[in-house]
């Protein structure tokens, strides 16, 4: 509509049954728009809900192993880790040591390396296995 004074713009908005919304207050002269502000806010909220629905949040899932794990238990836990990775989540592989097992961390490292080798087709190592207290932790991310 061009440059006009505030009273004329407000009267035009009232005549149309709409609101006068300031779009760019720092511009000289300030820029305003005649619109239905309630509908505009509803559309913004609706678009935000749609965007939130489409986004995928990456979670950190944890799979715990023991140094003397048997083959079937290893396969089951590794299958769960594979499912987590295929869903797009990170996996924290935790090797728990109990009692005197901490004296032989190489046994735990063998199991952790076996997990990494088994999941190499769907995962890459984000942080290599490191011993922290009584547990060894490695983080895998999906490829």
Structure report:
This protein is an alpha+beta fold. The protein has two domains: 6-54, Translation initiation factor 3 (IF-3), N-terminal domain (Ubiquitin-like (UB roll)), CATH 3.10.20; 60-142, Translation initiation factor 3 (IF-3), C-terminal domain (Translation Initiation Factor IF3, 2-Layer Sandwich), CATH 3.30.110.10. It has helices at residues 6-16, 37-54, 71-86, 105-118; strands spanning 19-24, 31-35, 60-65, 90-96, 123-132, 135-142. The protein has a four-stranded mixed beta sheet, covered by helices on one side. Helix 3 (71-86) links the parallel strand 3 and strand 4 (90-96). The longest helix has 18 residues, at 37-54. The radius of gyration is 29 Å and the shape is rod-shaped. The mean pLDDT is 91.
